[in-house]
Design goal:
Elements (H helix, E strand, L loop, with lengths): L2 H7 L4 H12 L29 H9 L2 H19 L2 H13 L4 H6 L5 H4 L5 H14 L7 H22 L4 H9 L8 H9 L2 H23 L3
Helix pairs in contact: 4-5, 4-12, 5-8, 5-12, 8-9, 8-12, 9-12
Length: about 220
């Protein structure tokens, strides 16, 4: 799993390389393979990892090639989806780690958001992504109208691009495209059918798409 990152290291100068290794050491699924002094460190369980604010992560992401950021997000999403089976949490977690956003309470609050409480409505990949983007572009004061309006530019662009790529923003319609039918996920038997049909793998693809779209906008929107 780490061969992608090893390839990245070869094109970085020494300063960026050490920063990148330090950054990787904090990522749960590859942290056991790297540390800032390039020695193996003790493996950390994802359950023990907390999302913390790391402004340097945004800076580092902006210094990387876009395809490198995409590859890291893809790996994160695959790992977190296998742990959580929750598209909203996986999207938020992956973007938060990539850009150092923090937000543990938001991660918890996203628990029932896939399909809006599994009602087949707004895809959780959108909800989780918008929460992450809100931490970047959101307002700190309730009366900050200008920030509210400016936050809609990148977030609306994300929603439009997602709909263009997936054909819809609705969970049930995304299911129809991916599985040939939609499922009532509140029905235990249909939930089993959904899982047997490869739910985690197919939904991971959707979350990866959402995270890539958001990352591209974030990197474009935050250029100096």
């Amino acid at each position: 799993m780490v061969f992608i990152y090893i390839k990245f290291l070869g094109i970085m100068n020494q300063h960026k390389r050490r920063k990148f290794l330090s950054y990787l050491a904090a990522v749960p699924f590859i942290g056991s393979a790297f540390s800032c002094d390039e020695k193996p460190i003790k493996k950390t369980k994802v359950e023990e990892v907390h999302l913390v604010k790391k402004p340097e992560a945004m800076e580092l992401s902006r210094s990387m090639k876009k395809d490198q950021v995409f590859a890291m997000l893809d790996q994160r999403v695959s790992f977190i989806m296998l742990k959580s089976h929750n598209c909203a949490q996986s999207a938020f977690y992956s973007l938060s780690e990539q850009f150092g956003l923090g937000g543990n309470e938001i991660l918890k609050a996203l628990t029932p958001l896939p399909g809006l409480a599994e009602r087949g409505q707004t895809c959780g990949a959108i909800t989780g992504t918008l929460m992450a983007m809100g931490l970047i572009y959101g307002k700190d004061r309730l009366d900050d109208w200008d920030t509210y309006r400016s936050s809609l530019t990148p977030t609306n662009k994300f929603c439009r691009r997602f709909e263009e790529e997936m054909g819809t923003t609705q969970c049930c319609q995304i299911q129809e495209r991916a599985f040939g039918r939609s499922f009532n996920l509140m029905d235990p038997e249909e939930l089993k059918e959904f899982q047997r049909a490869g739910a985690t793998s197919k939904c991971s693809t959707v979350v990866q798409k959402a995270c890539r779209l958001a990352a591209e906008i974030i990197l474009e929107h935050n250029k100096a």
